[in-house]
Amino acid sequence: MPIKIKNGLPVRAQLEHENIFVMDEYRAIHQHIRPIEIAILNLMPLKEDTELQLLRALSNTPLQIHVTFLTVATHESKNVERSHLDTFYRRFPEVKNRHYDGLIITGAPVEQLPFEEVDYWEELREIFAWSDSNVTSTIYLCWAAQAALYCFYGIKKRPMEKKLVGIYEHKVFHKRIPLVRGFDDVFLAPHSRYTEVPLEEIEKHPLILLLASSEKAGAFLCMSENGRKIFVFGHPEYDRLTLRAEYIRDMGRGLNPDIPENYFPDDDPEKEPPLTWRSHANDLYTNWLNYYVYQTTPYALEGTPGAGNDMKPDEISTTK
């Protein structure tokens, strides 16, 4: 939680200069306590793996968080029991009149398809438009980040020569931006994808701020609208063995995959990979919850920025 200080304390300026978050008494007495409402639209096929990964990532904060798992209504998941979805998930039409403090939209194993050929694409575009008026801040992960950049800004993805998979070094830019507060100058994070958004397209767009990228893996983290939209192109939420499971799966499918880069010791799949990215993953989600959700969300959720002015799906697309 932030440091509470007396009004006008002279050292406040120094604390802020050192990137230490402080809250004075006036601001503190105007804050009320209620659970932070976070929705997670889980588009991954192995729902429970992703649930565990994201709940773990969200747990490293003293904030009280209430999570609602969402799924789309226009796609039937084949890798999860229907009873699991019926019990623990809500479909988008059930919540479209609600407001949330934060939303996470996961990646999906459809990146090699054109966006318009994904069977739930129109519903996803509706969700993107809905989030603009019903959610304080949204994180788009991996394929969802590519899809959102395409919908909101007309930036297209492109296929890579081969699958990018492994653990890569990233450099941080704009270190005073709260989203990367506490990050080292260089940090590690997993990637696993067949497509990419050209880094140069992100860098030249006037509404998008690039916060971290890799020489080998390209863009990792960027944001727009002062953090109301956050795009993560890797998988900071991955567990130690997630890439190993993907490698074994692809081997079983006869895809002859490359060994994930910088992952297994000595590139030996029989050796357990070290977990080298967890601390920065925790920082990312904790910073998001604190600075872009908790500190900015209205106490009454119906007051979410833009509420009552829902965009239509056609209004968010610049690619028509």
The biggest beta sheet reads: 10 strands, mixed
In the residues, how many domains can be counted?
2
Order of helices and strands: EHEHEHEHEHEHEHEEHEEEHHH
**What order do the strands of the largest sheet run in, or round the barrel if closed?**
5-4-3-6-7-12-11-10-8-9
Rg on CA atoms, Å:
20 Å
First-last Cα distance: 44 Å
CATH class of the largest domain: Alpha Beta
Tally of DSSP helical segments: 11
Which CATH-level-2 architecture of the largest domain? 3-Layer(aba) Sandwich
Class by alpha and beta content:
alpha/beta
**What percentage of the residues does DSSP assign to strands (E)?**
15-25%
Shape: globular
Low-confidence stretches: 1-6, 306-313
Structure description:
This protein is an alpha/beta fold and 320 residues long. The chain has two domains: 31 residues, no CATH class; 245 residues, 3-Layer(aba) Sandwich (Rossmann fold). Helix content is 30%, strand content 25%. The protein contains eleven helices and twelve strands. It has a ten-stranded mixed β-sheet with strand order 5-4-3-6-7-12-11-10-8-9. Strands 1-2 form a two-stranded parallel ribbon. β11 and β12 form a beta hairpin. The longest helix is centred in the last third of the chain and has 17 residues. The protein is globular and about 55 Å long.
Summed up, what is this model?
The protein is 30% helix and 25% strand.
Identify the notable features of this structure and list them briefly:
12 strands; 10-stranded mixed sheet; 320 residues; 11 helices; Rossmann fold; disordered N terminus; single chain; alpha/beta; 25% strand
